[in-house]
Specification:
The radius of gyration is 28 Å and the shape is elongated. 41% of the residues are buried. Helix 2 runs parallel beside helix 6, helix 3 packs across helix 4 and helix 9 runs parallel beside helix 14. The strands form 4 sheets. It has a 6-stranded mixed sheet with strand order 2-1-3-8-7-6, sandwiched between helices. It has a 5-stranded mixed sheet with strand order 14-13-15-16-17, sandwiched between helices. A 4-stranded antiparallel sheet has the order 10-11-9-12. By secondary structure, it is of the alpha/beta class.
């Protein structure tokens, strides 16, 4: 069963409102094995909506539409659907009565404009709205079933879950699309794809694809099978194959973040941590403390932005800064060593860099960041140049430091 999702509204096409409805609907359709063949967003224009309905209905078995069902002059989905069906509008007396009751209970007058919400295309089935004034509609356009729902998320969620999803699930006959996402950090998308090899081959089921967000390269595994049991079995096999290819590069699955992946490793081993930050300004400490229960392993953090603070608060040797510069491995080594000693922790992470947009030199361009990890066995340091704006450099730097700690806890060298 192929489905298409159409969103209506000027606020969407102008970027004033983020279309969360389409993403949610796609997830619901995937859960019953429905193949989503496209998304489309159109403005509050009768001709544009009607054209989109006609075009989409030729490409799918089910078309889901949200938006444009209100009482104002820019709410034109009723008329546009009628145009696509080649019929006129007629008053739905049942919904009109419910509208009048809706306003009577609330002791509010129903203005004439609200009557428009009960004008439905001839031959269209009304779908009740349990929490608003815009009823939904179910119609046929060619060989396609068209379901129209309100754009208000709360109303759309309720209507889809109660009335539309059961019908589609029955048609799906038990088929499902299961998804699993695995997250990596440290290697680029092309490097990850090369390691995965034939697992990313087009036409494979389950399919494996990669996406990148915030420097995290994620593997998206999608399994499409006639039954839940078969989908679960096949997605588990593919996940294991991906883990065999990438090993410890994978730090978590689905909604797990890097700090969340580190938390149980620190807790279970009773390891305490401190941070010493310059260019990240406390962002690394914030990532640690975003996790509930982090007080059991994160004990202290320093933000030593200036050279003076590195000397006065962390005891960095002024000669080290003068000789090598604040952004250097010798400086972050001292920052990490002294932070570990002063906080009396097992490990300490230090970061110093040039986040930009200015401050770079030919020898140390913007994005140059030095890292150090101090532990009982000594200190390891690394210099990496992160490309991007100030926020990107700071964010990637913190994730790099977390990854250094993670591989240290695993007892393995960094993969980058």
């Amino acid at each position: 069963m192929k489905a298409y999702i159409l969103s209506v509204g000027d606020e969407l096409t102008l970027g004033q409102t983020v279309d969360t409805n389409s993403a949610w609907l796609s997830q619901q359709l995937a859960s019953i094995g429905c193949w989503i063949c496209g998304h489309m967003t159109v403005p509050d224009d009768r001709a544009a909506i009607a054209s989109a309905i006609s075009e989409a209905s030729r490409r799918c078995d089910v078309l889901l539409i949200s938006g444009g069902l209100g009482p104002t002059k820019d709410d034109l989905t009723h008329q546009a659907l009628a145009d696509a069906m080649g019929v006129g509008l007629e008053m739905n007396e049942k919904w009109l009565a419910q509208l009048e009751e809706f306003f009577r209970i609330r002791r509010r007058p129903m203005v004439a404009a609200n009557r428009v919400q009960a004008m439905l295309p001839i031959g269209c089935r009304m779908i009740e709205n349990s929490c608003g004034t815009a009823c939904g509609m179910h119609a046929r356009v060619g060989d396609c079933d068209v379901y129209v729902m309100p754009g208000v998320p709360k109303e759309m969620f309720a209507m889809f879950t109660r009335d539309v999803l059961p019908q589609l699930r029955e048609r799906a006959n038990g088929a499902v699309i299961l998804s699993r996402t695995l997250h990596t950090f440290g290697l680029g998308e092309s490097n990850v794809a090369e390691l995965l090899g034939d697992l990313m081959k087009r036409g494979r089921n389950p399919s494996v694809g990669t996406t990148v967000s915030g420097g995290i390269v994620s593997l998206r595994i999608n399994a499409r099978f006639p039954s839940l049991a078969e989908a679960q079995e096949k997605i588990a096999e593919t996940e294991e194959a991906c883990r065999q290819k990438l090993g410890d590069l994978i730090f978590g699955a689905d909604g797990v973040t890097l700090p969340e992946a580190l938390a149980p490793m620190l807790k279970e081993n009773g390891i305490t941590v401190a941070t010493a930050e310059s260019c990240t300004g406390g962002l690394l400490a914030g990532m640690f403390t975003d996790i509930p229960g982090s007080s059991s392993y994160f004990l202290q953090g320093w933000v030593t932005y200036s050279n003076e603070s590195k000397v006065n608060l962390l005891g960095v040797n002024p000669q080290t800064i003068e000789t090598h510069g604040a952004v250097s491995e010798p400086v972050v080594r001292e920052m990490a060593e002294n932070a570990r000693r002063r906080a009396c922790v097992d490990v300490a992470l230090a970061i110093s860099g040039i986040a930009g947009p200015d401050g770079g030199t030919p020898e140390k361009p913007v994005g140059t960041v030095c890292f150090a990890l101090a532990h009982a066995g000594g200190v390891s340091a690394r210099t990496i140049v992160h490309l991007g704006d100030r926020a990107t450099v700071r964010d990637r730097s913190c994730k790099t430091a977390l990854t250094m700690l993670r591989f240290h806890l695993l007892g393995k060298p960094l993969p980058f």
